[in-house]
Amino acid sequence: LEIESNRPRPHEQSYRGATQLLELPLDLSQALSALSQQEGVTLFMTLLAAFQTLLYRYTGQTDVAVGSPIANRNRREVEDLIGFFANSLVLRTDLSGNPTFRELLVRVQQVAVGAYAHQDLPFEKLVEELHPERNLSRNPLFQTVFALQNTPMEQLALPGLTLSSFQVETTTTRFDLELYLWECSENFRSLWGDGWQQSEGLRGVLVYSTDLFEPQAIAQMLQHFQTLLAGAVANPDTSLADLPLLSAAEQHQLLIEWNQTERDYPDRLCIHQLFEDQVAQGPDAIAVSFGRQFTYQELNSGSNQLAHYLRKLGVGAETLVGICMEPSPMMVASLLGILKAGGAYVPLDPTYPLERLRFMLEDAQVSVLLTQEAIAPLFNQSWGDQDLIVVCLEKAWEAITVESEENPVNQTAADNLAYVLYTSGSTGTPKGVAVPHRAVNRLVCNTNYITWEPGDKVAQCSNISFDAATFEIWGALLNGAQLVGINREIILSPQDFAQEIQQQEISVLFLTTALFNQMAQEVPCSFRSLRYLLFGGEAVDVRWVKAVLKHGAPKHLLHVYGPTENTTFTSWYEVQDVSEARSIPIGRAIANTQIYLLDPHLKPVPIGVRGEIYLSGDGLARGYLNRPDLMAERFISNPFKKSKLNRLYKTGDIARYILDGNIEFVGRSDDQVKLRGFRIELGEIETVLNQHSAVRESVVMVREDETGDRRLVAYIVPKIEQNPTSSHLRSFLKTKLPNYMIPTAFVILEALPLTPNGKIDRQALPLPDIAKVELQAINQTPRSSVEVELMQMWAELLGQQVGIEDNFFESGGHSLLATQLVSRIRDRCGVQVPLRTLFETPTIIGLAQCIEAISGAKDLTTADTKTIASQNREEVEF
């Protein structure tokens, strides 16, 4: 039973415990007895059913086993009754199907009667026969205990037996939770002292492990138990999921108080209108800086000319216009031009496979595509029935510049689309998230997580196909700040990136968690000059946050969370003291956003209990493009608040409230993962893999190595008489998936391991380092000391042995590992190798030749090394 605890479960039980008392009102106790008589069950069974319902609502598990001390009830000696643990029964109840409480009583009765029939079987014998997995952190068969002591007072009056007060406080416990209840009378009261409010009724004590639970959480649990009991006796025909659990005060806090995020912002204007306001306020202020600088007026004039040109091509309200460009002032002007023309932009990453680009263009019915001369050849081919106009801006610029520099007459409203961003899809095809202007305004205008200043310099580190670019570009341009382009190669070199932050005087920076971790490991003092550093996208390692705080934190360090469907950011948490933290919360909702943590029946879960994250508010996307079935599944009616759109978005993310009201991210409810900032549907990779002629079935999962690096691993069961190689599988996937979705390792299995109920046992899948390494047919033995050193570095980073002709990236490497390799070469070999060199010669033999050439160069000074590192810093694959 996976009960959510306030503290991590220790590897070995300490048996430290504490107690809290429970006193049920007399009328509730009498109602419980009446219900038991009416249904033909004992009071013990009714209370057990309620306790198991409580555990079901706390865990979501429908197979609930509770231990109960047994002493051959009504047949053993009183000494055994007081000893209490003469034997233990395991009462295992099936709560599936969301039965009514009345129906559950029947199930519990059957379980209890069956257990009583075999109560003479020693518990130790049961453990011996079942061979449960031994774990020093918990009892092997159950973690919770329930008992009702209802022996009448007069039966305890035996010759030679002296009764005295029983001390209910305890400092030890053998289980996570132990709930003991007593039926009390006036005579029985003398045993318990005067601390009780009533003389009769049900009283109890909850013993809990202090290793796991805070006193406040236990007090809440007892209150929920009492609320649930009252609901059950009031209407036993209520389903378990609908039984009341939260008090009115808790409901108000979770649904209303913590979601009061309303804040004025320009919700009736479009993005380009807000930009034009900034132009009017500061026309000569620098708007963008990508080596060359452009003022707000210059950027506005150029984008106006492009807008007029696009309108002549037929672009109007909500026309979807593709844009496939490298980051540059021209790209920013193109985004504005599309919006000013009335259209919405569809970002296309030039590194994507042609098949994926084709699908996105066809799915969005893009009729006009803006691109650059270096990328245009990708689109010089037939696109089937699609009439695609490809505009190469360098070639068309002469025609564009004859257009008017005046602002076009606005043809759109805040509800119109601003962009459509394609994300990974679980069915094997990407899905387009359609985002309106209002959602972007809510993200960056007069919000509560960041305060913009006109003098801010905002780094653009993200490709526009990644939704973080929405925050970077429009956060800068709608607030009068300066957007500063950072070359991708610099970003991937921690030392160079730290220097760039200082030289460019960056004040606002967003990083994926993976990039944040890398910078914190190598240059933890990099961020001290920033006003705001925001990071997020996947689970964060607390140790790297501590390193940044220790060596010089920015003025504001924010941990952010949010899916693309809620426009980049949903929540924020300002990181300050993490000395005792085991995780970094994702915090609270940003302005004009509501967050609900709900169970599978859309009921709010208590503080500390896991629930799925549902989102509402002005940041919600319109939905998925051309996917009504998926929209109906993920965008549902909001039962809690009549918002402007009256919708909830079902994220699939699991989280819980902690006691201070912040939200702690737990994981996913499905196969979607976040890896190096990218959202990946594992099912999409599996779908494509299963299309390979040699693959019978496959499973893809994320594995974490000893250093904390997370990687995709594919497990393949080949068809009979087929022997697919890793290189063939990787090459096949590269034609259909972007590079960040290619597994770093392929493990060939005869069959996938299954659980007893026939599901794939992911925990039993072997680690990838036990797979056979496929070496090239040519000589793979290192021939020099440099190659030996490189081979050792590669093995450390990739988790497998490689040969001197193996490709670093095809062997599981990625850009972040590449930067680590460059750092290790510098530290061990004393040579600064440009990152680009690794991309151009990604083999040990080729890299060794480069190192030897650099080492052999005469008078190689520090200045020379810096020159090498700064050469050819155009965009490289991320």
Q: In one word, what is the shape?
A: globular
Count the DSSP helices.
27
Physical arrangement of strands within the biggest beta sheet: 17-18-19-20-21
Which spans of ≥5 residues are poorly predicted at pLDDT below 50?
Answer: 72-85, 770-779, 858-878
Helix/strand/pairing category: alpha/beta
Average pLDDT, all residues: 84
Radius of gyration: 32 Å
Q: What is the percentage of strand-forming residues?
A: 15-25%
- What is the terminal separation in angstroms? 42 Å
Main beta sheet: 5 strands, mixed
State the helicity in percent bands.
Answer: 25-40%
Give the beta-strand count: 32
Sum this structure up briefly:
Helices cover 32% and strands 21% of the residues. By secondary structure, the chain is an alpha/beta fold.
Characteristics:
single chain, 878 residues, alpha/beta, 5-stranded mixed beta sheet, 5-stranded antiparallel beta sheet
Descriptive report:
With 878 residues, the chain is an alpha/beta fold. The protein is 32% helix and 21% strand. Strands 17-18-19-20-21 form a 5-stranded mixed sheet. Strands 22, 23, 25, 26 and 27 form a 5-stranded antiparallel sheet that branches. The longest helix has 20 residues. The radius of gyration is 32 Å and the shape is globular. The C terminus is likely disordered.
In terms of topology, how is this protein built?
Layout: E1 17-23, H1 26-39, H2 43-59, E2 63-70, H3 78-83, E3 87-94, H4 101-116, H5 123-130, E4 144-149, E5 177-184, H6 186-189, E6 201-209, H7 215-234, H8 248-255, H9 271-281, E7 286-290, E8 292-295, H10 296-312, E9 320-324, H11 329-340, E10 344-347, H12 354-363, E11 368-371, E12 389-392, H13 393-400, E13 417-423, E14 431-436, H14 437-444, E15 457-460, H15 468-477, E16 482-485, H16 488-491, H17 494-503, E17 508-512, H18 513-522, E18 532-536, H19 542-552, E19 556-561, E20 571-574, E21 588-589, E22 593-598, E23 611-617, E24 623-624, H20 628-634, E25 635-637, E26 647-657, E27 663-668, E28 672-675, E29 678-681, H21 682-689, E30 695-704, E31 710-718, H22 726-734, E32 745-748, H23 785-798, H24 815-829, H25 835-840, H26 844-856, H27 862-870
Parallel strand pairs: 4-5, 7-16, 9-10, 9-11, 11-12, 15-16, 17-18, 18-19, 31-32
Antiparallel strand pairs: 1-6, 2-3, 5-6, 7-8, 13-14, 14-24, 19-20, 20-21, 22-23, 23-26, 25-26, 26-27, 28-29, 30-31
